[in-house]
Design brief:
The chain contains eight helices and seven strands. It is of the alpha/beta class and about 240 residues long. It has one domain: Rossmann fold, CATH 3.40.50.360. Helix 5 (about 145-160) links the parallel strand 6 and strand 7 (about 165-170). The structure holds flavin mononucleotide. Flavin mononucleotide (FMN) binds near residues 88, 90 and 173. Flavin mononucleotide binds near residues 86, 136, 139 and 173.
Length: about 240
């Protein structure tokens, strides 16, 4: 089992996304998977030009010469890929979207009706890996991930593959806040379990998914605590009393 994480945060190793990816891949590695962690921000990835040359002129290859050639090879070598992203305006980051668009050469241009009756492309030359969607957002609630929950379902259907799991973390900015270490450690233990389950069974279990969806701080007034703390932090930042 090979699991590759593609991280779409511009903050790379400093990001809250990375905290989640690290725990997930650690769990997967402990369970015997071969893992790879790729920071997309460090790669040269041009925008898709929409020219369809990868379907018509040079099937399977992009006309642009950048790091996507190597990234597609890595993508196709994986059994499971993790799309790990910060939540940006309720969606994946631009870095991640750019990467996803550039996966176009993996597809086949011909069409057919899928089992649900929608028209789709026929399977590409190589089977796509199963998908994990992983994201964190600044707002505390889990409801902010509605777009990503739908996006990963539509993506899996378009790419004719399965979903190995979903990991969403509201209040993600607290993942590196020492004040909340015990809660963060408890949460990351579940992320680790999720990685181990994907390595062993190909899927995150329903019970682990349930645990991952719990609020980071198990208090009925978590949103109020968050608002008070976050506003104090913002004021300190604005006054220049604190460094990011
Ligand atoms: C351009 C931009 C848009 C954002 N939009 C949202 C959003 O819609 N919802 C949300 O909960 N957080 C939003 N955030 C906050 C980030 O998701 C949050 O800071 C996250 O922890 C960043 O992850 P990272 O450290 O891995 O980059 C946004 C941040 C930026 C910079």
């Amino acid at each position: 089992m090979k699991i590759v994480a593609f991280n779409g945060s511009p903050r790379a190793e400093k990001g809250n996304t990375h905290v989640m990816v690290e725990a997930f891949l650690a769990g997967a590695g402990e369970a015997g998977a071969k893992t790879e962690n790729i920071f997309l921000v460090k790669k040269k990835i041009g925008h898709c030009l929409g020219c369809f040359s990868c379907w018509w002129k040079c099937p399977g290859s992009c006309v642009q010469s950048d790091d996507m050639e190597e990234l597609i090879e890595t993508y196709q070598s994986a059994d499971v890929v993790v799309f790990a992203t910060p939540l940006y305006v309720d969606n994946v980051s631009g870095i991640m979207k750019n990467f996803i668009d550039r996966l176009l050469p993996t597809g086949d241009p011909h069409f057919e009706k899928d089992p649900g009756g929608e028209v789709r492309h026929v399977p590409g030359r190589k089977k796509d890996p199963a998908f994990v969607m992983m994201a964190n957002g600044g707002f505390p609630e889990q409801s902010h991930f509605q777009v990503l929950r739908l996006l990963i379902r539509r993506m899996a259907r378009n790419f004719l593959t399965g979903i190995a799991g979903e990991i969403y973390r509201g209040g993600g900015s607290l993942l590196q806040d020492e004040e909340f270490t015990p809660f963060v450690d408890a949460y990351l233990a579940h992320v680790r379990t999720a990685g181990s389950e994907v390595a062993k069974t190909g899927k995150i279990s329903a019970e682990t998914t349930r645990m991952l969806e719990q609020p980071l701080i198990p208090a009925p007034n978590f949103a109020d605590i968050f608002v008070t703390n976050a506003n104090a932090y913002m004021d300190q930042m604005i006054e220049g009393k604190k460094k990011p």
